[in-house]
Amino acid sequence: LNNDTTLTLGDYRHLYLGYSFQEGYDPYRTTPEREALTSLYTKLHPTENDCDTIIKYATLGIDDFPFDLRQINRLIYAYKCKNETQKMKLWSYKLEKIIDAILSTGDGNAPETAWYVIYTGHEYDIVNRLGLTASQYVFIDPCYDFIEVENNHFKIKGCYFNVRRVLEEYNRKFN
Q1: C or N terminus of the chain, fewer CB within 10 Å?
Q2: Are 9 and 97 in contact (CB under 8 A)?
Q3: Tens digit of each residue's pLDDT (9 = 90 or more) over 93-125
Q4: pTM of the prediction?
């Protein structure tokens, strides 16, 4: 929250995974900010006013869920469009560190080495970040999501994600 660039990968991993132990954590949260930004984010040439609106709503979304990778991406996009390079770089740095924290939890090649996520949307964010295209989702008991991907240069069939915390918290709060 204080834009501390001295945080280590371990710090980011603790912040990311530890967030799921906060009382306000909701693994299936949705916010109106996400919907409000969809049409603006897809514009090829957003106006200054569009960018200000994106920044406003993305910031509200991040205030609600600090690890909302899509809102962070939207914030980066708006700052880039406005040529606010320092803010764009700061948020790009944060995004990279959060992604690195997720990727540091495993290799995604098998259930035993699955990447841990605290929000299922992050699975698709990671797959996309790796330059892959998701083609199908499969749940594997007791707590793994497998995202199958289209043919790719890695020659992999898909990626495994550990969603144990998502399921535990969902069951605790909603069952």
Answers
A1: C
A2: yes
A3: 999 999 999 999 999 999 999 999 999 999 999
A4: 0.92
